[in-house]
């Protein structure tokens, strides 16, 4: 009897083990893997959403990925004199630990895109309409990502095949040119950017489709706009001009300038994804967000705020901001140099730089002299940083909206960052027309469309007898006033070659000269006068009224090749296949310009 009981127990035990083994072989439908996920449009739409989400990370557009390029430009200086200093001073070492966040977060986006594209196939004609739209969005985001990486790092590795990731050889990719033609890695990457964006143009609907396509998803118009930008980075002006003319002609959707310039810099459905926007990053309005700051791709939370911290970087310390970045006196005085046809200040100044101006107390084109919910007055002693001064940047903040009384620092600002607006299409079309045929009346007409929105008098062709003079007007008047303190100026200076000739370097020194001044050591009138003073680089060596004012030019510390950011040592230590760029090696990029037959426009004095 005892043996029988033991035998029965063994049988039952074996049966239990067999049953457990059968259960272990059952696949968990809630556990998604690359082997089971992504074989239908519903799955791949999740990949598309994930790719968009990576465009909202700190390294892409929520903070440093956006603002580092702003500091590379000549319209902004680092008023905290700590954070962003190496980028503002053009001497960032390879041992830095901030700019690689850009690298990290854009490659996260690229990885998601490469996975989704691996499921889409190569024959677009065989795709359903839903799959065409999925593939088009993934191509656009990958193209945008590589456009940005090349503009920052010059020679990033090109990863387009998801199957490469199956081995370390693929994951640790090389950024050295792989072909025998001697084409630079910069060119290889931009070849792919052009390929991705031109294909996306054929797959995506226009914003006229309505629904999600009018509310922030990438469209054929967004792809066309970035395709033109990519072409212009390598001086392919004739090709870019044809694309830009097609956008203006409505081939890729209907766009127009908003009547009020400020509507491009406010949160809310009334203003965001408007008729002027080709593409913008979607952030939740303040008050509708979660509670957790989601800084990195691995720091994910279902309660993420889904806002950005650009406002925190720009806003003054007295309003709760981090007081890191200020507008240059050059940009301020550029705005002040020209009045509207009815005698007012350029309304774009109001939305770009946070100063008190008497004109805005009575000008119905503005909301008044706003400082968040407070009022600026003629006696206001208002600056970005209390220790170093600085003209506050109003753009991408709520300084002029009257909605909130201060900044909630972190990823909380809900204003969508408009990465490309129709005014950019018009001014780029004018630039390309000038390069190909200029100067022409057509180029002048496109510029005047943008000026008319700002109520400025029309330019006349007769005032621009040479291509060089019209280029100067576009590069150093029209574009700074329209896009001041926005992402993209650093890219422009690179493609124009402004770092490569002595006259352009001298101009950058003037543009980037600013006073460092503590506000408590001056009367209101003296302090405000110094903040706005149109100082020149030559003034740095002259006697200053007081030891409490110190003039500096960010460009004085420029090191050759540092118009790009170095590939950081953290990455090269981990990946022996990575080679440095011009910033790592502190070498000039003049040879690249000369090899391609490109020229740098000489400085031309306007108004003469």
Describe the protein's topology.
Elements: H1 2-24, H2 41-54, H3 58-62, H4 64-72, E1 76-78, H5 85-88, H6 100-118, H7 129-153, H8 168-171, H9 185-203, H10 220-233, H11 237-248, E2 277-281, H12 310-314, E3 325-327, H13 329-336, H14 347-352, H15 359-362, E4 370-371, E5 374-375, E6 391-392, E7 417-421, H16 422-437, H17 441-453, H18 467-483, H19 489-496, H20 502-511, E8 513-517, H21 524-532, E9 549-553, H22 569-574, H23 582-585, H24 590-595
Model description:
- Pfam families: SusD-like_3, SusD_RagB.
- This protein is mainly alpha-helical and 608 residues long.
- The chain contains 24 helices and 9 strands.
- It has a 3-stranded antiparallel β-sheet. Strands 2-7 form a two-stranded antiparallel sheet.
- Strand 4 (370-371) and strand 5 (374-375) form a beta hairpin.
- The radius of gyration is 27 Å and the shape is globular.
- The N and C termini lie far apart (117 Å).
> What structural class should be given to the helix and strand makeup?
mainly alpha
What number is the mean pLDDT?
A: 92
What kind of assembly state do the chains in view correspond to? single chain
Give the biggest sheet.
Answer: 3 strands, antiparallel
Low-confidence stretches: 1-21
Number of helices: 24
Terminal CA distance reads 117 Å
Radius of gyration, whole Å: 27 Å
Helix content: 40-55%
- The share of residues in extended strands comes to 5-15%
The general outline is globular
- Kindly report the spatial arrangement of strands forming the biggest sheet: 1-3-6
Annotation, overall tally of beta strands:
9
